[in-house]
Write a structure and sequence with these properties.
The complex is a heterodimer of chains A (233) and B (258). Chain A has 233 residues and is of the alpha+beta class. Chain A contains five helices and eleven strands; from the N terminus they run ααααββαβββββββββ. In chain A, the strands form two sheets. In chain A, strands 1, 2, 3, 4, 9, 10 and 11 form a seven-stranded antiparallel beta sheet that branches. A four-stranded antiparallel beta sheet of chain A has the order 5-6-7-8, with no helix packed on it. In chain A, a hairpin with a 5-residue loop joins strand 9 and strand 10. The longest helix of chain A is centred in the middle third of the chain and has 27 residues. Chain B has eleven helices and no strands. Classes of the chains: A alpha+beta (233), B mainly alpha (258). Bound molecules: FE2/S2 (inorganic) cluster.
């Protein structure tokens, strides 16, 4: 394209050079094009190609003098600058919208039952028993072994089903994939990879048991030695 | 001959001609036009190679999957007229559909079985593409799109699972979303998750459920994912998938056959 000569250039700058054409009127040389008679009347004049200023890498044309004084501070033209500013604002808007939408998906208020509940007095639990009393409402077994009471979370450590307490077999058994747990909560059969979790158990001022399911104690982390994980009576 | 005159004046009218752009003579040109000038049929190339209809080679599973997707879209939209995705109503609306709405059980079963079928046909399609080596260049890009479509199909199946809101649904989704706990970095039981502050109420499972357990917010989220988000996503990827088939030289065929 750059070697093409427009009609306008031909009209203004064409006549200074003598026509270099064969008797038949064919143009000679790569840089000369014969303008058809229909465009220029009967005169067929060869047209020189004006030299084009060299393009710089950033797309700007500068004179040598300008090049000299270029301190590299103004790398961009005003147009480049505004174009970049425009795109920057578009993408920052979209980015902020994305972050906002993501945050929007995390509600501040949960309409879920409180993880804290009162589980009666310690005397209600006889030594050597597993109480399923709170299972239906709170998914927690209260187990008493000797003078220790602990609360076991009724969530299978395999994939979260609710195991059942089987009194006769003295174990917790998960109906989903068959995991079994001792009454301590330690797993011994099936796919469950670790022991049932114990949750925080304490005494309220009035002497009743307070169970907080949001605080967990894991066997594998030594959490069952934590004094908050059991109650001594 | 008033009838013939009427027919002529109708079929020569500008309205008729603007709708029906070609006649039905069995010429090659007309056969092209039938495909080209129809918004639905233009998905299809005007010309296909002889081997493209060889069912023993292609199994037709891609097309069947797409057809089942259309069945699912139509029956799904119809089911939405009766189903309300809230804790209070979801289960009873499902029961109502099954027992009292005329043809309700039929539509719901159609949706259900089509959903199972789509998972199977998408897998079979993938198996065929793998066995015939049709994932090789220049079709490697479309294979990746296909894997995304498979994942979206499974996600659609999974999100639909919760909607009946019965015990099976709740426990299946409990089990399914509990896997998200173990996501690296993003889950509160996954590798490095707790270390960067993931808790049951801010990890990726929470994002999915809108809570710490499968409850009413989870039902609503799964409903929106199932009925809007995932269908739109799978639609976009299907457009790319079909377009790509033609850009990569049409449906793949046995080597040596054109
Ligand atoms: S969820 Fe309990 S064994 Fe799988």
């Amino acid at each position: 394209m750059s070697d093409e000569i427009t009609e306008g250039q031909g009209l203004t700058g064409g006549d200074s050079q003598a026509p270099r054409s064969t008797p038949a009127g064919e143009p000679v040389g790569p840089e000369v094009r014969r303008v058809p008679p229909t465009e220029r009347g009967a005169v067929a004049a060869p047209v020189p190609v004006p030299p084009r200023p060299e393009k710089k890498a950033d797309g700007l044309r500068r004179t040598a003098a300008a090049e000299e004084s270029d301190t590299n501070i103004w790398r961009y033209s005003r147009r480049d600058f505004f174009a970049k500013l425009g795109w920057l604002s578009v993408f920052s808007f979209l980015g902020v919208m994305l972050i906002g939408t993501l945050r929007y998906m995390f509600p501040r208020v949960l309409f879920e039952p409180s993880p804290i509940f009162r589980a009666g007095f310690p005397e209600e639990y006889l030594p050597g028993t597993v109480s399923t009393k709170w299972m239906k409402d709170f998914r927690v077994w209260v187990v008493r072994e000797g003078n220790r009471i602990y609360a076991l979370s009724g969530i299978c450590t395999h994939l979260g089903c609710t195991p059942r307490w089987l009194e006769k077999e003295d174990k917790f058994k998960c109906p989903c994939h068959g995991s079994g747990f001792y009454r301590t909560g330690v797993n011994f059969e099936g796919p469950a990879p670790r022991a049932l979790e114990r949750v925080k158990i304490s005494r309220a001022e009035d002497g009743t048991i307070l169970i907080d399911k949001s605080i967990k104690f894991l066997y594998e982390n030594g959490g069952w030695d934590n004094p908050q994980s059991y109650l001594s009576v | 001959m008033p009838l013939a005159d009427l027919k002529k004046s109708v079929t020569k009218s500008p309205v008729w001609k603007s709708v029906f752009r070609h006649d039905y003579k069995d010429t090659e040109r007309n056969r092209y036009l039938q495909i080209l000038s129809n918004i639905w049929l233009h998905l299809h190339p005007t010309k296909i190679s002889r081997h493209a209809v060889e069912v023993r080679y292609t199994w037709g599973m891609g097309g069947i999957s797409f057809f089942i997707f259309l069945v699912l879209t139509v029956t799904g939209v119809v089911l939405m007229f009766y189903y309300r995705p809230t804790d209070q109503y979801a289960y009873y609306d499902m029961k109502y559909l099954m027992n009292d709405v005329p043809f309700g059980a039929f539509i719901r079963n159609m949706h259900r079985w089509a959903a199972h079928a789509m998972v199977i046909t998408v897998w079979l399609h993938m198996l065929r593409v793998f066995m015939t080596g049709s994932y090789k260049p220049p079709r490697e890009f479309n294979w990746v799109i296909g894997v995304i479509l498979l994942v979206l199909t499974l996600l659609l199946s999974f999100t639909g699972y919760l909607l009946p809101w019965d015990q099976l649904a709740i426990w299946a989704v409990t089990v399914g979303t509990n896997m998200a706990r173990a996501t690296p970095l993003l889950g509160h039981e996954g590798p490095l998750g707790p270390q960067i502050g993931m808790k049951p109420d801010n990890d990726v499972r929470f994002l999915l459920l809108g809570g710490t357990q499968v409850g009413p917010p989870a039902l609503l989220r799964f409903y929106v994912l199932h009925c809007v988000f995932l269908p739109v996503a799978i639609g976009i990827f299907m457009i790319v998938h079909f377009w790509r088939i033609r850009k990569d030289g049409g449906i793949s065929g046995p080597t040596g056959k054109v």
